[in-house]
Amino acid sequence: MTGGTVNRNPIGRAIVPVVVGLIIAVVIVLGSRRLGVATMVIIGGSAVIAYFVWLATAWRRPVDPSRILSPYLVLIAMELIHMGEEQMSDFPGSLRQVFDIPPTFDLPTHALALMGGVNALAILAAVGLRSRHRIAQQFSGYMVWFYVIGPGMVNAVAHVTFPFLVGRLYFSGLVTVILPTIAGVVTLVRLIQADIAARQNETKFRGQPT
């Protein structure tokens, strides 16, 4: 449990998964039109996986920021470096050689929506983990799980696969994808350890006499 007074509004807590689920659905639909279905299979797939992992972990038990903030912030920094390589090597153009990507997914969209938007939300989540309110902690916990699973893990699998699909050694972002992958693995381990510790504390608390 994180420090400070926590908002234990049960109605608000129950609404959070519904709101997060609706946001995911809207992002997938709108993102498919703007970024392309193939792009949203990666992003949306990561979002859906993160949703169910989050329901089993951070929605029930707040993430302890003291355990995960350091590797998580490093993950964000490494992802920005990786996206910088993608921006310089025209990731949307490279992806268009593999999939039917709409022209609306171009370098400005990559910079604003992915480099800027996603990472801004990731940084806000780092702040939200320290919030005194349970609902803010839950939203932030989802974003952390999404970021670890998406940019940290699924992104690596996609980038290793792309060169085989285009039939050449290099694909945009391939050189630096190892950076967020390593940071993502470390953050994932910390997240799992933090949830195990939170679950153990929860069990001990329930076992205490009232």
Please give the count of helices: 7
Percent helix: over 70%
- Which structural category do the helix and sheet elements fall into? mainly alpha
- N-to-C SSE series? HHHHHHH
Strand proportion:
under 5%
N- to C-terminal distance: 19 Å
Can you describe what's shown?
It is a single chain. This protein has 210 residues and is mainly alpha-helical. It has one domain. The protein is 77% helix and 0% strand. Helix 6 runs antiparallel to helix 7. The longest helix has 33 residues. The relative contact order is 0.17.
Question: What brief labels describe this structure?
Answer:
210 residues, mainly alpha, 7 helices, 0% strand, globular, disordered N terminus
